[in-house]
Design goal:
single chain, 13 helices, about 375 residues
């Protein structure tokens, strides 16, 4: 007498939502056990897709029993792990082996809650033939689920793949740093210039394949950490030049239309403070920003190498930050020579604040490195 064909209808919960939300241990074998577990999962979370998959597996069992009365069918549910990856795969294989010991099937009908579980096919098929794969997905949400899966796949790529993260994260990061500085210095009107400058550099590098050429000559380049210094100083120099140009253009607009001869000292004594004051007001923000950018590259390099020269870069960046406010206050005095200077004048307050913060920073760095930063 021929042996009946035995088919296992296997429902797979890859991330173990069943265990997390109901505390039910797996594997589950038998129709009643699966229905009880699916009902408990649906009560705890009515929107849970794995509950639909388990009920769908029960429906398939009923259909197969009615259509093939001469064959034998059994239903089971196995789960993986919330952490995913190798741990989830190993747990599912162990539970599948346990199920097959209790019900030695000839084939499997695999039931999942979406196309993302297709990766399970080769793993299970290595243990027992899969005769069919059934996806039980709520009808109106199937396309949405696929869209979410694709979206998060590429979103993860933007964060994890260094090739894409340089653009997706690096460029916005630089822009946010520049915007933060402009906001702190009340110079948001220059935001368009900053965006144009940074995006223009990125498009230039990508458009002309400069990055690919740099990759080709990478073996001949300095260490990646050392390149930070060069990049920071290059960007800083460019920003300083732009700031100086902006200051010159701003100061030139206040130059008299009928200047006196170059050797007329009285003329220059009257107009030179005005020109310097307007040059500072128009260009100091980008000039200081460029100086700080130059120090940032050095600071990161020294930090990665635990170099004591990190103290130099930090102190210099702090001094550059305060110099912006001190020089602006001095520009106000140049433009308004009758302005009375008191103990509470901005120039005095910023000077005192810079001395205090620099002194505190030097003291902290001295405790860290046991020597003065400028020695």
């Amino acid at each position: 007498m021929a042996t009946k064909s035995r088919t296992l209808i296997l429902c797979v919960d890859q991330d173990n939502d069943l265990g997390k939300k109901t505390g039910i241990a797996t594997p589950l074998i038998g129709k009643e056990n699966v229905i009880t577990a699916a009902t408990g999962l649906a009560i705890n979370d009515p929107e849970e897709a794995d509950a639909n998959a388990m009920f769908g597996a029960v429906k398939i069992l009923n259909q197969m029993n009615a259509m093939h009365p001469d064959e034998e069918f059994q239903i089971a549910t196995i789960t993986g792990s919330p952490s995913g990856g190798i741990e989830a795969d190993r747990k599912m294989i162990d539970e599948l082996s346990d199920v097959l010991r209790q019900y030695p099937a000839n084939g499997i009908i695999l039931v999942t809650d979406g196309f993302a579980d297709d990766v399970l096919g080769p793993i299970i098929n290595s243990r027992i033939p899969i005769t069919s794969i059934q996806h039980v997905v709520v009808k109106h949400s199937q396309r949405i689920e696929e869209t979410y899966a694709v979206f998060f796949k590429y979103l993860r790529m933007l964060f994890d793949d260094p090739y894409y993260s340089r653009i997706a994260l690096g460029v916005p990061g630089v822009l946010l740093i520049i915007f933060g500085f402009l906001l702190a210095s009340n110079q948001l009107q220059n935001a368009g210039l900053a965006v144009t400058f940074v995006v223009g550099i990125v498009l230039l590098i990508k458009g002309f394949g400069i990055y690919n050429r740099l990759v080709e000559i990478r073996p001949h380049l300095p260490a990646p950490e050392l390149q930070l210094i060069y990049v920071g100083r290059t960007l800083g120099t460019v920003v300083v030049i732009i700031g100086a140009y902006q200051g010159i253009v701003g100061a030139a607009s206040y130059f008299p239309s009928n200047p006196q001869p170059f050797y007329d000292l009285s003329f220059w004594a009257g107009y030179l403070p005005v020109l310097i004051g307007h040059f500072i007001i128009k260009g100091i923000d980008l000039i200081v920003l460029g100086i700080i950018l130059a120090f940032i590259g050095s600071t990161v390099y020294y930090y990665l190498h635990q170099d004591e020269r990190l103290a130099n870069s930090l102190i210099s960046a702090i001094m550059a930050f305060w110099m912006r406010f001190i020089i602006l206050s001095a520009a106000d005095i140049l433009l308004k020579p009758d302005l009375q200077i008191t103990v509470f004048s901005p120039l005095v307050l910023y000077t005192v604040a810079s001395i205090l913060t620099t002194t505190i920073a030097v003291a902290l760095l001295y405790r860290r490195y046991k020597k003065l930063p400028f020695t």
